[in-house]
Design brief:
Shape: globular
CATH architecture of the largest domain: 3-Layer(aba) Sandwich
Largest sheet: 9 strands, mixed
Bound molecules: thymidine-5'-diphosphate, magnesium ion
Number of domains: 3
Strand order of the largest sheet: 8-7-9-10-6-11-12-13-14
Strand content: 25-35%
Number of helices: 12
CATH superfamily of the largest domain: P-loop containing nucleotide triphosphate hydrolases
Helix content: 25-40%
Number of strands: 23
Radius of gyration: 26 Å
CATH topology of the largest domain: Rossmann fold
Length: 463
Amino acid sequence: MKIKTVFNCQKCGYQSPKWLGKCPDCGEWGSLVEEEETLSRREGERGWDFEETTPKTIAQIELDSEQRIKTKIAEFDRVLGGGVVRGSVILVGGDPGIGKSTLLLQVLNQLGSEEVKVLYISGEESVIQTKVRAERINVNSPHLYILTENNLERIIKIVKELKPQILVIDSIQTVYSLDLQSAPGSISQVRDASGKIIFLSKATGISTFLIGHVTKEGAIAGPRVLEHMVDTVLYFEGDRGHPYRILRAVKNRFGSTNEIGVFEMKDTGLTEVLNPSEIFLAGRPEAEPGSVVVPSLEGSRPILIEVQALVSLTSFGIPRRMAMGVDPNRLSLLAAVLERKVGMKLYNQDIFLNIAGGLRISEPAVDLGLVCAVASSLLDKPVDPSTVIFGEVGLAGEVRAISQSETRVKEAEKLGFKRCILPKNNEKRFQAESRLELFGVSSIEEVLGLLFRKGSRERSEKC
Ligand code: TYD
Ligand code: MG
C-alpha cells in the first residue's frame, strides 16, 4: 500500500499536498514538512461507542449535579469555571520550568485525597523522578497513579483498564503513535494523539489535562490546531524572576475566560494566593514619581496593581517606547494623546512602562493610570500614594466610563486607600456606599490638573 503524505506546517498545522516555501496561512518560512497523512478519523478504528446515538429533545437530557469535580484548590476551580467538567479536555500551556507539572501533580493529589481515582502519565520524567518531586511537594495520595509512557496505543490501553476519573498527559508533545512514521512532537503525531485522547475522554467521561509546551513566540508549540480541538485552554504564566504564577483561561467552553488564578512558587510547591492585591503592592515605593496604583479587574476579581513609568531624555535617534505587562501600542497611543491634548513634550523622551510583579493587563481601565504614571515621571512629581486611578482614555483625551467601578473601589477601600479618581460617568452612577473620596473626571487635562497643579483648585490640595 502506498503511504499517502501531506505537507504540514509545523507552526500552525496548515496542510498542503505540495511543498511550499512559505506557509500561506501563518506566513512562516520553511515550516512545511512532509508527513504521513493522519488517519485518526477512519471508521472502525475507534473501538469506542458513544452511549447516546439517538437524538433527544433538550428537555429530555438530564443534568447530573455532579457534572463538575471540584479540586478544592479555589484558584484552580475558579479558572475552570467551578471545577473540572466530566469528560472535558483541558490543554495547559506554559513556558518550560514555569511549574505545569508541579501544579497538575498538586491538583491530582488534592483530587486523590477526595477519593477520586487519578492517573498521571509522564513522557518526560521517570516514575522515580516524579516520586522525588512528589516527596518534595508532599504529594502522597493513595488514589494517585503514576506512569511513564509515551506510546499512544499503550496509553489508551492502560487508561481503558485503569478507568481513572481524571487523566493527565505530561506532555502531549512526547506522545507518539507507532502507526505514524513522523517523529514524536511533529504536528501529525500531536494531532493524531490529541484526536484519539479527546475521543477517549468524550466516550468514557474521563476528564483529561493535556500539558503542552510553548514555543519561543509564545504559542503552544505546533498545535494551534489543538486549541480548536479541546474544550478549555489554560495558560500558566509568570516571570521566572518572580515567584508568582498566573493561571489564565484563554478558551473555556464551560465558563468565563476572564478569570485568573494566582499562585506562589515556594520550595514546597505552589500555594494559592488569596489576596493578590496585597502581594502585588508590597514593596511599592511611596511618593516616588511614575508610580500609580490601578484597581484592575480580572474576571470577577479586582486586583490592585502598580503601574510604573520612567520617562527619560532620548540620547540619540528615535525615542523608545517600551512596555512590559501592557500592550506597547497602547502606550504609544496614550503618549500621542498626552502630547497632542495636553501639550506634554514626549517627542524627545524614552518611555519605559512596567506592571510590577510580572502581571499582564489587557483591559482599557488601566489607561488613565498609564497616562498619570507617564505624566508623573515626566514632571518628576509623585502621585499621592493613597490615591487609586482608573478609567479608559479616548483619542480626544476624554475619560470614558468602564465596567464595575463599585467592585474596584471596594478593593481599594479594603487596602486602606483614601481617594479614587474615576470617570465622571462612573461617579455619577456610583451605587455603593464608599469610604473613599471619589473624584469624577471627564478629560485627562482635568486629572492632571487635579494631581499635579497644587493649589489650582480647592480639591487638588487633597490629591
Ligand atoms: P515544573 O513543574 O517542572 O515546570 P514545567 O512542568 O512547567 O516545566 O517546575 C519546575 C520549576 O519549579 C523548577 O525551576 C523548580 C521550581 N520548583 C520550585 O521552586 N519548588 C518546588 O517545590 C518544585 C517542585 C519546583
Ligand atoms: Mg514538566
